[in-house]
Write a structure and sequence with these properties.
Blueprint: H1 32-43, H2 72-79, E1 82-85, H3 92-101, E2 105-111, E3 129-138, E4 143-148, E5 151-156, H4 158-164, E6 177-181, H5 190-206, H6 213-218, H7 221-262, H8 268-296, H9 303-324
Antiparallel strand pairs: 1-6, 2-3, 2-6, 3-4, 4-5
Helix pairs in contact: 5-9, 7-8, 8-9
Length: 325
């Protein structure tokens, strides 16, 4: 395991992204928080796949799919990583400086408008909330190193001021901020880690939706298609991220997690992984069809697509039940 101190400071070598962020995945990026945690755990020399049981309990929320996040209690149980909310009562840059000095990693909600790694989407083009994990800050040279999405990046100059709310960029309200505490960080042996992960998975299975959430989603799809048809690409991008993308990426993570639990045994977890992967690939194809709706204004019948995913959800949960009960 990498020493926590190796993550901090200006000389840290940037490791390659974890396989969960490989370019051949259906959804290389999930959401900013999940992706940030995956790469942070990976950079510590730990196995992030072990903490991915939470998509089992994901649900249709009426206007979105669950915005999945790993539970802080899971991170503590599996890795000894603690996460606490940071109360901001001074300028953000002073809190970041203090926490880095203490060997902690601040997690900060920032404006992606100032993050160079979002070039081509948000950088200097639009304003959107996202989360980063800060590992190094130089207030004199105005440089910042941070984890975001599928990698580790660096920014400087005006982007430093914009990201941390310095000078003219001071926010009206303080951002939501947490601190990652690494003093109890531990690397369990693979067998113990997998056993603890299975215990957590049983809890998520107990909390899964009582009724098939994709069936519930399908009942609202005609209404959602109307939003996209009338709202165009702006509505499409916002909707697809909050709904179909979260659904597909959650189950692609679950497929990877189920394979991890199966450990090559080709048992019920492996069969659950196959069904979770069906949901992921089907959701990816559906996103492309939604883009055509936004472009042409012509809708389509999504019933067969949703039925495919609903059947896969039922079978996935049954296989997990067989494996974990």
């Amino acid at each position: 395991m990498n020493a926590p101190s190796e993550l901090l400071g200006p000389s840290r070598a940037v490791s390659a992204p974890h396989a969960l962020h490989a370019h051949d995945r259906d959804f290389r990026e999930t959401n900013c928080y999940v992706d940030m945690v995956i790469e942070l755990v990976h950079a510590l020399g730990l196995e992030p796949t072990a903490c991915l049981g939470f998509p089992i309990a994901s649900d249709f929320e009426g206007d979105q799919w669950t915005f999945i996040k790993p539970a802080t209690s899971d991170l503590d149980r599996l890795y000894g990583i603690g996460i606490e909310e940071l109360c901001l009562w001074r300028p953000l840059v002073l809190h970041v400086e203090e926490q880095l000095r203490r060997g902690r990693i601040p997690l900060v909600e920032v404006d992606s408008h100032f993050l160079p790694d979002t070039q081509g989407s948000d950088y200097r083009a639009r304003h959107a909330k996202t989360s980063i994990a800060i590992t190094h800050m130089d207030t004199v040279g105005k440089t910042l190193r941070y984890f975001h999405n599928a990698g580790c990046f660096e920014l400087s100059g005006p982007d430093f001021d914009g990201t941390l709310g310095v000078g003219d960029h001071a926010p009206l309200l303080p951002p939501y901020t947490e601190i990652v505490k690494l003093d109890r960080c531990v690397q369990l042996d693979p067998q113990t880690l997998r056993a603890r992960s299975r215990e957590l998975a049983r809890g998520y299975l107990d909390r899964r939706p009582r009724a098939n959430p994709i069936t519930a989603y399908a009942a609202r799809m005609a209404e959602h298609l109307a939003w996209i048809r009338t709202g165009g690409f702006d509505a499409y991008h916002a909707y697809s991220f909050a709904s179909v993308r979260q659904l597909g990426s959650a189950f692609e993570l679950l497929a990877s997690y189920a394979r991890y639990l199966d450990a090559g045994a080709n048992g019920s977890c492996a069969r659950a992984a196959e069904q979770a992967a069906t949901i992921s690939t089907t959701a990816k194809a559906m996103i492309l069809r939604l883009a055509r709706v936004a472009n042409s204004g012509r809708t389509f019948d999504a019933s067969e697509t949703m039925a495919t995913m609903a059947r896969a959800w039922n079978e996935c949960m049954q296989h997990l039940e067989d494996a974990l009960a």
